[in-house]
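Chapter summary example: a protein plus 6-phosphogluconic acid.
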Amino acid sequence: MPIKPTICVEKNAAELAAAAADAVIRIAIAAIQARGRFTLALSGGSTPEKAYELLAQPPRLAQLDWSRVHILFGDERFVPPNDPRSNYAMAARTLLAHVPIPSSQILTVPTDTASARAAAQAYCHLVASHFALSPAGPPPMIDLILLGLGDDGHTASLFPGKPSLDEPRVWFTHSSPGVLPPPVDRITATFPLLNAGRTVIFLVAGDKKKDIVHAVLADQSHQYPAARIAPHDGNVLWLLDAAANAAVTKSRPVPPSGSQA
Ligand code: 6PG
């Protein structure tokens, strides 16, 4: 049964990034202790960059046994891995090039395929084989899925009005661009995969996001893709800075602790 999301509000984007990095470390240590490994799905976009950088430097760099970490991508742009628009390129620049994760444990989306559709199919098989699962079966339970939120209420590359929102079974699918840049085809995790997550953390910062955060958190009719993130046996944490939380605050006074259940 999906649990009501938790909201944590940090003073500013820098403190939000630090809180996100600490949450990754905390969840990773618990996962490694419980199951011997930590599976992490990275988000693209600009918001998580600072958190990735903080993970790749002291003190957090030494707090984790990186050899137990397995990385996948919640979504990817259908561009080469060295393209500045690539989510892999951003993750490599800020985190993956600086931490000792075995390369066999970094599952990049194969964007050298003929189409985004072929890339999504190949990625499903790559992830399934990595976790010794059948791609036709239930998805893996990813320990932590990081997600961003677009101004149109998209998350990962699940854009409003696209067929990818209705995918009932496959773990990754393809999508034409949404209304927000970059205008390239995407590969995206689907709701079946995202809602099988153990923990999902939305990272949202900035005044520009305040209205969409409020709208998504109040969205009972699932008008926005992000509102459909509700892990069956997991939990959702919204990590916001005060600017992104401003419209929520206006509608509901924030308790002195700064966090809202
Ligand atoms: C992508 C992301 C996308 C992103 C949101 C928010 O590929 O761009 O996965 O879902 O998280 O668009 O992006 P910002 O963090 O840049 O606002």
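Key point: The chain has one domain: 6-241.
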